[in-house]
Amino acid sequence: MLETSARLLRLLSLFQGRRYWAGADLAARLEITSRTLRRDVDKLRSLGYPIHSTSGAEGGYQLGAGSAMPPLLLDDEEAVAVALGLRYAAAGAIEGVEEASVRALSKIEQILPPRLGRRVAALQAVVMMPPHAESSVNARTLSAIASACRDQEALRFRYRDHAGAASSRSVEPHRLVSTGRRWYLVAWDSDRKDWRTFRVDRIQPRLTAGPRVVPRDPPAQDLAAYVARGISYAPRCRARIKLLVAAEAVAGRLPPHIGLIEPIDAHSCTFEAGASTFESLAMHLVLLGVDFELTEPAELVEQVRLLAKRYARATAGGLSQRVRS
Amino acid sequence: MLETSARLLRLLSLFQGRRYWAGADLAARLEITSRTLRRDVDKLRSLGYPIHSTSGAEGGYQLGAGSAMPPLLLDDEEAVAVALGLRYAAAGAIEGVEEASVRALSKIEQILPPRLGRRVAALQAVVMMPPHAESSVNARTLSAIASACRDQEALRFRYRDHAGAASSRSVEPHRLVSTGRRWYLVAWDSDRKDWRTFRVDRIQPRLTAGPRVVPRDPPAQDLAAYVARGISYAPRCRARIKLLVAAEAVAGRLPPHIGLIEPIDAHSCTFEAGASTFESLAMHLVLLGVDFELTEPAELVEQVRLLAKRYARATAGGLSQRVRS
DNA sequence: GCCATTGCGGACAACTTCGGTCCTCAATCA
DNA sequence: TGATTGAGGACCGAAGTTGTCCGCAATGGC
Fold it and tell me: Can you tell me the distance from the alpha carbon of B222 to that of B225, in angstroms, rounded to the nearest whole number?
């Protein structure tokens, strides 16, 4: 039933536009009887979307926050805003989500209607990059490379190596890696027949998209570590923290370039971490969301205290979670 | 058919994760025969999603950019990145999309699973606001107010007026308006029984959400103009530009606070615009996407030339639009 | 030019679902 | 208590779904 599918999508979209809906209103909007509406609501529920309802006068339906992310239905303006926000985040303005931003960006740019793409480009042209992006990376370049990685397309670009010498490269891109300060592309160099790591800010991609290639086995399991070794990146601030949970419980909960988790026993482990500032180190610690013991260094202790306060303030002003007043 | 709807969504999500898919792969993923896959593809097509396909060896399917925005299917990481990027954009970092950002933000925060909401809050606590946000507005406050407007909920907050005197307000929020420099809330003050305009950066919202209220007629049709009058906001840079299209053709194509469109005749009109810098004025001009005549002021002319160049550069490095290499 | 590969889509049949109608029940609030 | 609103069972005709089988068309390597 094509019409049913479309209607479910419309129903979701209505719920994203407004929180509360009376059953009669929804039924009228969708041009169905209220019985069918109830059935549709049931369908959404059985698809995993938590729709609360209340009886009586002033009753109605409301979509709550579930355990999984429902599809986001954006109008044109909103899509442009999201694309711009992601470009910002991907450029390094928001530490900790760079890789996810690029992934989301390549998703949205792939399906963004051309007329909206033009608006994004126009707005982007005037927007300044975040001040602390060390070597500003073109969001479009990032997104293009990310797409090539995802779609397994060969890529040709001009590259300026650390000595300043320019060369033309032809590669099979494998993955983008962000060290938190810079972007790197791990790719198989077709000419040199070996894996290479490229700094993205030194890449000038060609317009032409290459043919599809079969994916190769990556040069290392932990690409973040592979890149880190290759570029001898030495974070200024380091610390060893004892976490009061099992190693498995935190594995994969934080970007891998942040630090190493090593088990001590069944309910504690060591977190060896490095970052460019104690502030960001403290943040990642808080992000882990587990109990830990921390005595030194003093700077980190202080930062964690500061963060705890900020975090409290930030959450104190939050949205209420009530179902109904 | 519930399963069919869910499968269509999964199919869309697969397409957003990778561009090219062989029919057999898709069918295997969805555990259906290739015939059913073709039927599903047809369904998506008839729902308006442009899915291209190619025959022959190495053939396959690919989702292109259509004329409408398909639902965005994000994983957890990506959702967090989007929420953070939007908070950034809403805070004024990206001129021109503030209102859309807030709308998208309140959409996504409403359905964001709580565990992701915590991550957003944690990351947000460490992220600095954009440097040029004149009076920094808490993204959470903005999002809370936007939700209240959308859901027609009464709102109580503490307000510090321009003299610095604090008061407690109880309002029926109507709409958020961004002048490009600051956020304002247009609301019906329940105590004073009149419309009021509040500067959002002076609002300290209460946690408790109020009861739902029936929407009132707004105090003016053009709320942006209403707010602008109320705050006597005088942009430093002004210009009158002759646009070579009918007034109707551009109406509603740009944020209303930017300027006024007045018809001259059937194929031209006057654009009276103001902005804080000639640069942003030039941007909005380019954004209109129509032919125009511009001779003065000289600063604006220069900015438009600069912008045209930048715009060209920005689009020159773009993603290719090919269907297949 | 041949041939393998891959997508296209019609036809069919067994089966499932859909959606309107009609009904009773339960919760909520004035 | 009564009005309002959601919940959901029963029924039934109409409509959609899916796998199977088929021949056709486009593409690219040999």
Answer: 5
d(CA A34, CA A16): 20
CA distances for B242 relative to B55, B262, B271, angstroms: 51, 10, 6
Q: Find the residue closest to C30 using CA and C1' atoms.
A: A57
- A38: phi then psi, degrees, rounded to nearest 5: -60, -40
Are A89 and B93 inside 8 Å of each other by CB?
Answer: no
Strand locations in A44-193, DSSP E?
Answer: 51-54, 60-63, 155-160, 166-178, 183-189
Of the candidates B151, B143, B75, B69, the residue with the CA atom closest to the CA atom of residue B113: B75
The pLDDT assigned to A73 comes to: 92
CA distances from B149 to A19, A62, A294, A317, B215 (A): 11, 16, 44, 17, 9
The residue of chain A with its CA nearest to that of B127 is A94
Distances from the Cα of A131 to the Cα of A88, A158, A171, B130, B211, angstroms: 11, 26, 31, 9, 43
For chain B, what is the mean pLDDT?
Answer: 76
CA closest to C1' of D29 belongs to B57
pLDDT tens digits, residue range B224-234?
Answer: 777 766 665 45
Residues in chain B: 325
The answer to whether B3 CB is within 7 Å of strand D is: yes
A65 with B287: Cβ contact below 8 A: no
3 state DSSP class of A151: helix
pTM for the predicted model, two decimal places: 0.72
